[in-house]
Amino acid sequence: MKKELTIEGMKCEGCASTVAEKFQSVDGVERVMIDLDSKTAIVESQNEIDAP
Fold first, then answer.
1. Which of 3, 15, 38, 49 could cross-link to 10 by cystine, CB 3.0-4.6 Å?
2. Quick check: 44 and 28 in contact, CB under 8 A?
3. Rounded distance, CA 47 to CA 37, Å?
4. In the prediction, which pLDDT does 25 show?
5. Predicted confidence (pLDDT) per residue in 5-50, tens digit
6. Sign of the dihedral defined by the CA atoms of residues 6, 32, 42, 39, in that order
7. What is the distance between the alpha carbons of residues 4 and 22, in angstroms, rounded to a whole number?
């Protein structure tokens, strides 16, 4: 499953790195791509991703 999420509050590479690490720690997440300019994360996982 692939899902694009908007992540408010990311302002630097450190923030983006922290967000990526948190997503990667979720069971079933296979890949995370962060775009700091658009404040989005594309998350690929084995299971459906629920996001508010």
1. 15
2. no
3. 27
4. 92
5. 999 999 999 999 999 999 999 989 999 999 999 999 999 999 887 7
6. positive
7. 15
Q: How many angstroms separate the CA atoms of 9 and 7, rounded?
A: 7
Which tokens is 34 given?
């962060």
Three-state SS at 20: helix
For residue 11, give the DSSP letter: -
Domain ranges (residues) in the chain:
9-36
* pLDDT at residue 48, as a whole number: 81
For the sheet containing 40-45, what is the strand order?
2-6, 40-45, 29-35
Residue tagged 């992540």 (tokens): 7
Q: Is 52 helix (H, G, I), strand (E, B) or coil?
A: coil
